[in-house]
Design goal:
Low-confidence stretches: 5-30
Protein name: TonB family protein
Order of helices and strands: HEEHEEHEE
Pfam families: TonB_2
Subcellular location: Membrane
CATH class: Alpha Beta
Distance between the termini: 41 Å
Keywords: Membrane, Signal, Transmembrane, Transmembrane helix
CATH topology: Fusion Protein Consisting Of Minor Coat Protein, Glycine Rich Linker, Tola, And A His Tag, Chain: A, Domain 2
Number of helices: 3
Shape: globular
Number of domains: 1
Helix content: 25-40%
Membrane topology: Single-pass membrane protein
Structural class: alpha+beta
Largest sheet: 4 strands, antiparallel
Length: about 160
């Protein structure tokens, strides 16, 4: 009886997550961004589109992405503001906040640039022909990162 109640509940909750959970490892895995036939993201909000962008960046830069929980005390946090136009092109990017770790700033900007083109934003998300977002790169001591929009919870001290 409980199985009949629990399985649908688990399915509903799983549909709410950003990425699928690998039940064998307990890790959230990278997924491909859902798009329409013309490459437009199916995200209905700017936050959902931001998560799509984070998935794309993580997918393209998979060798630089930390797949487990980030360490308790991060080496660096770099916040990058950027704009994506109606065609998914990166229009502008800049460091908004950093601890002045130039190597990690360059890694964040390079990861962003290498991930273009992005999925096209849905037309209702555009303001003046573009979507403006800010994303935080969370760096571990080894130089690998996760993006805040889709990051795992940090480890305890």
């Amino acid at each position: 009886m409980y199985r009949k109640l629990v399985l649908p509940l688990v399915a509903v909750l799983a549909a709410c997550s950003h990425a699928p959970l690998d039940v064998t490892t307990g890790r959230v895995g990278a997924t491909r961004v859902q798009t329409t036939g013309d490459g437009t993201s199916t995200a209905r909000s700017v936050d959902a589109y931001k998560a799509d962008l984070a998935q794309r960046i993580s997918e393209v830069n998979s060798t630089r992405v930390y797949t487990d929980r980030p360490q308790a005390l991060l080496r660096s946090i770099v916040v990058v503001g950027f704009s994506v136009d109606r065609d998914g092109n990166l229009v502008r990017s800049q460091i908004l906040r950093s601890n002045h770790d130039r190597a990690n700033e360059q890694t964040a900007l390079a990861a962003l640039r290498s991930s273009t083109p992005f999925p096209k934003p849905a037309s209702h998300l555009l303001r003046n022909g573009r979507v403006e977002v800010a994303e935080s790169w969370l760096f571990n001591d080894d130089g690998r990162f996760q993006l805040r929009s889709i990051a795992h919870e940090q480890m305890d001290e």
